[in-house]
Amino acid sequence: MVRMKLFILISVCFLLVGFDRGDVIPEMRECMQSHGSQQEYIKALEKYCDPGIIRRAMALLVIKNPYVIDTRKEGSVICYTVEGTTVETAHEISSNITQTYKVCWKNKRVISLEFYGPKKRVADAILPEMQECMKSHGSQEKFASVLKKYCDSDIIRNAMACLVIKDPYVVETKKEGSVICYTVEGATVETTHEYPSDIVQVYKVCWDKGKVVSLQFFGPKER
């Protein structure tokens, strides 16, 4: 119980840091909030972009829950690298794919826009047991049931302090001898009033001989 309370306290501190967007200019915030629909998005583009950039930007699908992962400033130019999950608008492009782009501003106008495309997900060499655990994130009940199969009591107590993660995906796989470790990202599902939903969380889990041998939470992904 003490460990769980400590983890929750640490997570709340991470969340407070993660929500500090003081370095994001109001115009950029407005553009990010406009991603709710194509109509809102077009309106924001017309307000802050010249026709050439608008044409490029319209090739981008609507992004739900975009967040800044990097901010760089040089003189009067400020650039933001942004990630977010696509909303399907055409049959050629799948939904729920994490996209990354970079946008630069000067004097309250967008001066450049660069798309990096879908973020690579590590899908190969994932143990069946790990896949089962990731799929169990749909509810606290399923999550608890799978934990009992693959974890000892100490790890279960640690894991249950984590919120349910929707659509988790492996971003890194490392293997050393018989131990294989996965770094995972996924957005939280709100389960208590202390935690907002749709915050990207990061954790690392290591397996050996079909059992979880270690679990480490990194808290909300830095924005």
Mean pLDDT: 76
In total, the number of domains comes to 2
Beta-strand content bin = 35-45%
The total of helices stands at 7
Main sheet overview: 4 strands, antiparallel
What is the H/E string? HHHHEEEEHHHEEEE
Contiguous runs where pLDDT drops below 50 for at least 5 residues: 1-22
Order of strands across the main sheet: 1-2-3-4
Q: What class do helices, strands and sheet pairing give?
A: alpha+beta
According to CATH, what is the class of the largest domain?
Alpha Beta
What does this structure look like?
- This protein is of the alpha+beta class.
- The protein folds into 2 domains: 16-118, Roll (Nuclear Transport Factor 2, Chain: A); 121-220, Nuclear Transport Factor 2, Chain: A (Roll), CATH 3.10.450.
- It contains 7 helices and 8 strands, in the order H-H-H-H-E-E-E-E-H-H-H-E-E-E-E.
- The strands form 2 sheets. The chain has a 4-stranded antiparallel beta sheet, with helices on one face.
- The longest helix is centred in the first third of the chain and has 17 residues, at 2-18.
- The relative contact order is 0.14.
What labels describe this entry?
single chain; 223 residues; alpha+beta; Nuclear Transport Factor 2, Chain: A; four-stranded antiparallel β-sheet; 8 strands; disordered N terminus
